[in-house]
Amino acid sequence: MHILITAGGTREYLDPVRFISNASSGRMGYALVRAAIRVGHTVTLITAPTALRTPPKAKVINAETSREMFHAVKKHFAKCDCLIMAAAVSDYTPVRTSKTKLRKSTANLTIRLKPTTDILKWAGQHKGDRIVVGFALEDRAIRHRAENKLKEKRLDMIIANTPSAIGAHESTVQIKTADEHWREIAMSTKNRTAGTIIRRVEALNNRASD
Known about the structure:
Layout: E1 2-7, E2 12-13, E3 19-20, H1 27-38, E4 42-47, E5 59-62, H2 66-77, E6 82-85, E7 92-94, E8 113-115, H3 119-125, E9 131-137, H4 142-152, E10 157-161, E11 170-177, E12 183-189, H5 190-209
Parallel strand pairs: 1-4, 1-6, 4-5, 6-9, 9-10
Antiparallel strand pairs: 2-3, 7-8, 10-11, 11-12
């Protein structure tokens, strides 16, 4: 398979040096890249800035903002068999970005934000025969909210986790496909979890080919 994987946390700039972002380390996305390559798949990685070493044998595309990531996904989506959206894409971006550095003052600063494009929703609407996998970071009603996301965005698989997974080397995740029950992967390294996810993707692909 040709698997397209996104990773890391996007940045939304207020001015040339300041930005809004999140605490995503990119570890899960990079672990998925390694797991997919290890079993023979071709991987294109679209990555937001991280401190991680680029996985060997992957085609790497850098995307700093949510807009850049959306353009990269659209450009490479048609050539993939599966998209795994492991990136933590910013939900909001400034309405206006200053071309020069905002100067500090004693006055309060109000920043107006607007929603970013929902890349995962776009992929679900245009997937055709492709497999689309999403992540849901939830702190309440985890399965309920993740399953709603699975249905509303027409995904084939959803991986649900909690904020404790951010930046951690180990985490507990819950996985659901569109036609199967929930499965929990108890506290495990992200490398092992990534291997499980890739095997589930392969199973979905084999089922679609039968």
